[in-house]
Amino acid sequence: MKREIHIVGNWKMNQTMHEISNFFVEMSKMKMELKCKAWIAPQALHIPILKEIAFTTGSIQVGAQNCCEQDAGAFTGEISPLALADMGVEFVIIGHSERRTIYKESNELLNKKVLKALSHGLKVIYCVGETLEEREADLTLKVLAEQMSLGLKNLPEDKAANLLIAYEPVWAIGTGKTATAEQAEEAHAFIRSQLTTHAERTVILYGGSVKPDNIDSLLVKENIDGALVGGASLKAQDFRALCGSASVIRK
Length: 251
Fold this sequence. Notes:
eight-stranded parallel β-sheet, 10 helices, alpha/beta, TIM Barrel, single chain
């Protein structure tokens, strides 16, 4: 089953207007035909800016880093998935380890977010991954199975095509440590085995200190279909290099 490689930049709470402008100026200088999916999730307030740029260039899809489990109402500071869809946003990241750890988002809450976002036609990147303590206790597969079963509970079969999974070992995010390609492949294969529908077609991304110098060793693995990238997505040269590697590897 051929799966298109995705490089997804999660800008987190970074990038000023000046930096965004410089990013796309630099990207435009690097002439190369992309043969992968290039997606970026900026801060919510910058989504309209990137949507305008993406409409002009046509090469990058724009998404959100989070959304609420409700469409509308008295939820100050939250981001409506209905509003995201209405704005033409293509995807939303749900369950990133920072949301799980810092904001204590449970699998049950994330399940509500996943179902709500999918109901509005948004693509969902659902994140799963273990902590260092869980890996050292040999609990990785148990944690992944629980996050998958609870977070994707009652997933409608007709929405499964819009679901992507991101495996992000918490101990490798922003630490400079990266799971070996073999460790990542083992986790990706297990995640695929947990999918009840569209398993062979579902894109599974790796996230955890991905850089231009380690992306190739990951992408050659059978079940690794791209990357969810933090720091390396902030600089146009690095992001383009990641996309360049992805463009020569077809799944």
